[in-house]
Every structure is written in C-alpha cells, then in structure tokens.
C-alpha cells in the first residue's frame, strides 16, 4: 500500500471518509440532518484543509472550529461522537494507505479532535 502523497490521494481519503461517515449510525445525522451539506462545495474545502495540514500547502483559509460550535449549539457534540469520528477517519486511512504521512494524518486527526472538543465545551 502506498502513502498519502498527492492531492488525488487526499481527495480519495476524504471522499471515502465521507462515504462512510455520512451513513454512520452514530454520527451520520450531523452531516445529513443537522447540517445539509452541499458536498460539491464542502468536500474540496475539507481536502484543502488536509492538504494544508499534511503538506503545508496554504490552501485552506478558514477557522475549522467555528462551524462545529454552531453544530454543537443545534445538537450537542460529545466525546463519544468525536471518538467515533476519529475511529472512522483512521479506519479509512488504514484501508487505503500506509506510511509516515498516513500515520501523521491519523495523529493530527486525533489531536485536532481533542482540541476541537475542548474549545467547543469552553465557548
Ligand atoms: C463528531 C465530530 C465531527 C462532526 C459531527 C463534524 C461535522 C462537520 C460538519 C457537519 C461540517 C459542515 C459544517 C457547515 O458547513 O455548516 C464540518 C466542517 C468541517 N469539519 Fe468537521 N466534524 C467533526 C469533527 C471534525 C474534526 C475532528 C476535524 C478535523 C480534524 C473536522 C474538520 C472539519 C473542517 C476543516 C470543516 C470545514 C470548516 C469550514 O467550513 O471552513 N471536523 N464538520
């Protein structure tokens, strides 16, 4: 299995993750009911975020915390929800990639999720 190396790899990772997470019995409803996502607009933005995070490309300009605070106000986001998000994300990576960047992506997901939940709870 190859490592995450290109934008096409990041796109594959994100599209596969969303295929799983949007039908997930524990957290799918956030993506389909709490927020009705326009995927054509949303997925490239999420891929920009990961390209920026993994390859230091200055693509994503935004604040990833703000939309999650808005979601939390509509339907509380819990530790269990974040644990599930990280689990599905890491499983997606393990199904598709292996290597140093793949490991870094999983670590970053976990650490961003931890910080995000703390920030959401302290607003
Ligand atoms: C249970 C956990 C999570 C849920 C249910 C969730 C759900 C969502 C939803 C529904 C949106 C779209 C919001 C909107 O457009 O109004 C969104 C945006 C986003 N999420 Fe999450 N998310 C979770 C955790 C995470 C984590 C851990 C990360 C990063 C590692 C992340 C990264 C992002 C980014 C970058 C955006 C786009 C922000 C922007 O619009 O600039 N999310 N999330």
Description:
The chain is an all-alpha fold. The protein has a single domain (7-122), classed as Globin-like. Helix content is 73%, strand content 0%. It has helices at residues 7-21, 28-34, 39-55, 65-74, 79-96, 100-122. Helix 1 crosses helix 3, helix 1 crosses helix 5 (79-96) and helix 5 packs antiparallel against helix 6. It is globular, with a radius of gyration of 14 Å. The mean pLDDT is 96. The chain binds protoporphyrin IX containing FE. Keywords: Heme, Iron, Metal-binding, Transport.
Q: Could you tell me which ligands this complex binds, including any ions or cofactors?
A: protoporphyrin IX containing FE
- Strand percentage: under 5%
State the major sheet. Answer: none
The parts where pLDDT drops under 50 for at least 5 residues are: none
Query: Structural class per helix/strand content?
Result: mainly alpha
Class, according to the CATH hierarchy? Mainly Alpha
Q: What is the strand tally?
A: 0
Order of helices and strands: HHHHHH
* Tally of individual domains: 1
Distance between the termini: 41 Å
Instruction: Name the helicity range.
Output: over 70%
Oligomer: single chain
Tally the helices: 6
The average pLDDT value, as a whole number, equals 96
Keywords: Heme, Iron, Metal-binding, Transport
Pfam families: Bac_globin
Binding site for heme: 41
Protein name: Hemoglobin
List the helices and strands and how they pair.
Elements: H1 7-21, H2 28-34, H3 39-55, H4 65-74, H5 79-96, H6 100-122
Helix pairs in contact: 1-3, 1-5, 5-6
The structure holds protoporphyrin IX containing FE.
């Amino acid at each position: 299995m190859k490592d995450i190396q290109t934008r096409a790899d990041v796109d594959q990772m994100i599209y596969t993750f969303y295929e799983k997470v949007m039908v997930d019995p524990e957290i799918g409803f956030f993506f389909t009911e709490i927020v009705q996502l326009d995927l054509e607009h949303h997925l490239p933005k999420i891929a920009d975020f990961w390209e920026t995070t993994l390859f230091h490309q200055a693509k994503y300009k935004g604040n990833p915390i703000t939309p999650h605070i808005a979601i939390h106000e509509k339907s509380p986001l819990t530790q269990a929800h974040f644990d599930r998000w990280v689990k599905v994300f890491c499983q997606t990576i393990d199904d598709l990639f292996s290597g140093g960047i793949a490991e870094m992506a999983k670590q970053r997901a976990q650490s961003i999720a931890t910080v995000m939940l703390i920030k959401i709870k302290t607003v």
